[in-house]
Task: structure prediction
Amino acid sequence: MSSVDKPKYQINILKTDIEFGCREDQSILHGMGQAGRKGIPSGCHGGGCGVCKIKITAGTYVSGKMNRDVITEEEEASGYKLACKVEPRSDIALEVIGKMRRSYFGA
Amino acid sequence: MQSSVLRPGFVQVRVLDMEKAIAHYRDIMGLDLVGIESDGRAYLRAYDEFDRHSVVLRETDTTGLDIMAFKMVSPEALLAARKALEARDVKCEVVEAGEQPGVGERLRVYMPTGHVFDFYTQMDLSDIGPMTENPEIWREEPRGMRIVRFDHCALLGEDIDASAKLLIECFGFSIAERGLDPDGNNMAIFLSCSNKAHDVAFLKAPLEGKLHHVSFLLESWHDIGNAADLMARRDVKIDIGPTRHGITRGQTIYFFDPSGNRNETFAGGYSFYPDNPERVWTADQYPKGLFYYEREVVESFVSVFT
Result:
């Protein structure tokens, strides 16, 4: 099965009209980028920087290891994740938590 | 002033998954894996480095920079620097020889920006370092991104002036280039201890001890293109590039390792001498200083760190 034939789950960003399809072998953040959509801040894509923090309110998924400095165990247990480390296993509804916080050197 | 520091010698970086990190740093970037020690740390080097390692990876549940370490010219110079630091009440401690394989005693300095800098004078030579008798250009053809050597780090913190001052006053670094905010304060300071346009950069941010990037030297713009091809083929997340900096004039790609630590492949850049006048970017032209072709600030570049 080529990747174009793989089923896509619908990812819905709550409080917006943003919806996009995401395969189960790609992260929600990657799926959003491939769909040409915006809504979740896009950073390092490695679970390190934390700008893509989301809260998943509905759906099933698998998630990978994330930097504990940006997401605590308690947060993770209550559905907070980094979108770059979550792959969907069903349709997903989520809230965007993370922000791009510009540092001074960015002018 | 000539610096008592030879060069940035190694970095120790935290990664979330060692297997993925080694696949990135060894297989895609093309560093040699020197070894993995019993505590789990992995040691790597680039083909044109004489010393045994320049990159140390430590697997844990956080990301970012553990240590940036500099090799100094002599034990006497290290002692003089230590006295100068102690006279300024800077927190220092000794890391015993052998804490990393093949590395002598290090002086650990806690920098005002929250970074841990180690200074040392002895590291074993690599068994497969550059040839010295009738030296071929390399022993074995470089792999992956064909990285020549570890080049520099850019680091984020609040009091960048204080960290720069310590490197200047205690170690003889020079400021090559600065970026200013609209009030004329330093937003970015590029320091050299060598002929390179920068050996370390401090970027102002309301943060402590954070890593902006670890940079690696490539030979040419062609190698930057090869690196970009590899990143596309191997699904490495690119931040920006290939492009060029106004600051340092370096040709560059920024990308992320699998734990989200930003790497750079860097080529070119001007030659620096400590008697060169400082180069300055005013706030209105600073975006061009960052990215000479785009002339715009890249949101992720100034907002995404580990």
Q: What stands out?
A: The mean pLDDT of chain B is 96. The interface with chain A takes residues 16-17, 61-64, 156, 179, 181, 187-188, 203-207, 237, 256-262, 283, 286-287, 297, 299-306 of chain B (CB under 8 Å). DSSP finds five helices and 17 strands in chain B.
